[in-house]
Specification:
The chain has helices spanning about 5-10, 40-50, 100-110, 125-130, 140-145, 190-210, 230-235, 265-280; strands at about 10-20, 30-40, 55-60, 65-70, 75-80, 85-90, 90-95, 115, 135, 140, 145-150, 155-160, 180-185, 190, 240-245, 245-250, 255-260, 290-295. It is an alpha+beta fold. The chain has three domains: about 5-80, Uridine Diphospho-n-acetylenolpyruvylglucosamine Reductase, domain 2 (2-Layer Sandwich), CATH 3.30.43; about 85-210, Uridine Diphospho-n-acetylenolpyruvylglucosamine Reductase, domain 3, CATH 3.30.465; about 230-295, UDP-N-acetylenolpyruvoylglucosamine reductase, C-terminal domain (Uridine Diphospho-n-acetylenolpyruvylglucosamine Reductase, domain 1), CATH 3.90.78.10. The protein has a five-stranded antiparallel sheet with strand order 6-7-13-11-12. Bound molecules: flavin-adenine dinucleotide. Flavin-adenine dinucleotide binds near residues 128 and 291.
Length: about 300
Amino acid sequence: MINWHEALSQWGEIQHNAPLAKRTTMGVGGAARCLFAPYDIAGLAQAMLHIPADMPLLPLGRGSNLLVADEGFEGLVLDVGRLQTYDHDVMTMRAGAGMRMSKLAQKAAQAGLTGIEFMATVPGDIGGGVAMNAGAFGQQVSDCLQQVQLVLRTGQIQTLDAQSLQMCYRSSVLPAGSIVVKADFNLQAGEREAIYERMRMMRQKRRDTQPLEQPNCGSVFKNPTGNYAARLIEHVGLKGHRIGQAQISSRHANFIVNHGQACTKDVLALIRLAQQRVAAVYAIDLETEVCMLGMQS
Ligand SMILES: Cc1cc2nc3c(=O)[nH]c(=O)nc-3n(C[C@H](O)[C@H](O)[C@H](O)COP(=O)(O)OP(=O)(O)OC[C@H]3O[C@@H](n4cnc5c(N)ncnc54)[C@H](O)[C@@H]3O)c2cc1C
């Protein structure tokens, strides 16, 4: 009888003790017990039947919203990066979970379709974008997501309407243990040059305001209703504050940057400090937007 690792290796690549830091844009954190990268959706569905029921699972996209504990992850990371299928008809684009959002935005622009220009500037994949309901510049995934295909923990492949994902500000509710493998977006016809121009402006705005040249994980905190996390952090005097090799960006206070050798402990210390100071001064609880693996959010 073959063990579950051998079974999985039929449907994808499996790696043991897989370092996760280099798979996140922040570049910190320890290793996962195992990492599995399925070749295709059918293989992922088969694999689900062989993964031990008590094994913690983490779907991984581009790791652009993920902070991994220094101790790593005692579970199985499912890297969906190879699920890159793509097709479209007149107004609908269907993309595999592993496609970069920026690539889909380019395809939409080429086809003269509007609604996802913001994706040109968000460094994640389609699956991560759905899971996080990514958004920027007044657009978000839930505005145009029509349906998703999921592989459930049972190995079943299921299609769900976007409405059933209860998508709201930077969150959606997926069935427990499920993996987004494909997403359909309903877009509108637009003027091609105007679409490219909007994408150019969005990119420029980011370059002007965000520390894109240093490793980071995007916005660390959600904006509290009617306020901005960056403004609150700046007002309590923490903009530019540094602990070890991690620093609250002096360009944008809702970003923490890694000066090269940061560890998660330092990033976490900055997160807690910002939460404590903002709570003490403004009685506002800053909720993390970044997904914290192996730590309390
Ligand atoms: C410089 C920078 C700028 C950013 N700007 C923005 C912005 O403007 N707006 C914004 O919304 N975000 C922004 N982000 C954050 C990030 O890019 C988004 O949250 C993005 O949607 C995460 O996608 P990902 O593929 O990297 O997901 P990951 O970081 O890999 O994962 C994030 C979460 O989604 C889950 N997940 C990933 N893939 C799947 C899947 N296939 N099925 C189920 N769950 C899955 C993971 O388990 C994890 O919980 C920024 C990040 C950076 C580094």
